Amino acid sequence: MPSLISHRISQDKLRRIRAENENISLEYVRALTTPIIAELTKWANETVYSKLGGELSWKIMLDESANAAAVTKLSDPMHPTIEINLGMLREIYRDSFVFPLISDMLASDSSTVKDLNETFKNLNFTFDSGVPPTHPSHHSGTFKLLKPIYDEKKHENLTDDMLVTRFLMLELMVVWLYCHELGHLVQRHYLLQVATGGGDVVSVSEAQEDVQMHSKKTDEDYFLKSQAREILADLEGVTLAVDYMLRKKLFNMPSIYMLLCAQEIMFHRFAVVYAENFDIPDLKHPHPIIRSEFMQSYYTHLILDTLVNNKLAPSKESVTMPMLYLSVRSSTMSGLFWANRYEKFDADNRPTFLVLSNEEYHEPKSEYLKTMVLWVAKQMEEIEPNHLLDQNFFAYYKRLEIFKKL
Ligand SMILES: [Zn+2]
Asked: What's the 145 CA to ligand 1 centre distance in angstroms?
């Protein structure tokens, strides 16, 4: 039995987090996140479903587990539902609440940020503070709404930058999660799934235990196909999230960085049920480090091309280094955040994400990536004729040929 990453989770730290949960009002979390979810649904209906005579709905489920799902009735597929558990929204709220505080601590009490900035020659895109410096044009609607309330009962010592990035992270984490589920729906993954118990409902859920035995028994490549579709939902999700940032005038450096951090933290959350190796597991979702590799590689290109297409940068090359900095920095800060919040460190005092970047894992990790590149391509062929978005990211993704050099 290989050792699981969950063995690294500190029970003391978990107890502390459960105690924190007691102080988070679920109704407050629901109220903060509902406008984001409602607006995304409105956009999806205007852009996709109303044109097809359908309607997408959403539900926040009163459930403690950190889960979300895309639910389709086979007899009425153009009226699907995105379900997000309140437990998941609470995790997102708590992480975005704490991340700027821990980032600040890491920047001031350790040499992590200083060392990283030195590797990038302290060029003008680096920053010494825990979170990126912000400007009034970076302020999200949620920040503007809640800033006066914070000022009134100031019990935390937060800079404006920390407060701005806290709400950016909350918003973008909800957006990415929602758009991942929307990705399952617009790619019509239900056509490639089997309804539970031969019934009418296909639910693509983010919970690992929810394996549909029928599909697994009738298709020996079930897990590989399912893992490829999760990567495709991740990539669709991040493409739609960048569209959202452009629509909301949030396409700027702090948002680009906070979305990276949000995704990395989400992947750390999902990683706890995986083995500490890169054997392809019998699970519906790929190892989160594999998801992260796909995401970071694709997102980097997407951001660079979006900057150039919107005339915010003269060429991809001119912004490659700043983007590389944000990518490396987000992995480091999110990994350390997760380790500080949840993990016991190993004998050499290293967090899991650093252990898994050891030399010995390079080969198995690149084998896993190569396998997934293949299965992603195969699943794309099946999905493409049924994709509900005319302008989708498939052609762009194919042109990128990511991981070609592996
Ligand atoms: Zn999914």
From this structure: 31
Question: What is the whole-number distance in angstroms between the Cα of residue 230 and the centre of ligand 1?
Answer: 5
Only one residue has tokens 């601590």, namely: 105
| Ligand 1 center to 229 CA (angstroms) | 8
| Per-residue tens of pLDDT for the chain, all 406 residues | 567 777 778 888 888 888 888 888 899 999 999 999 999 999 999 999 999 999 999 999 998 888 999 999 999 999 999 999 999 999 999 999 999 999 999 999 999 999 999 999 999 999 999 999 998 888 888 888 888 877 877 677 788 899 999 999 999 999 999 999 999 999 999 998 876 666 888 888 888 765 555 566 667 888 999 999 999 999 999 999 999 999 999 999 999 999 999 999 999 988 888 888 899 988 899 999 999 999 999 999 999 999 999 999 999 999 999 999 999 999 999 999 998 898 887 666 677 777 888 888 899 999 999 999 999 999 999 999 999 998 899 999 999 999 988 8
CA 154 to centroid of ligand 1, rounded, Å: 39
Q: Provide the whole-model pTM.
A: 0.94
402 near 377, Cβ under 8 Å? no
Ligand 1 centre distance from Cα of residue 267 (Å):
12
CA of 213 relative to ligand 1 center, distance in Å: 18
What residue ranges do the domains of the chain occupy? 5-400
Distance 201 CA to ligand 1 centre (A): 16
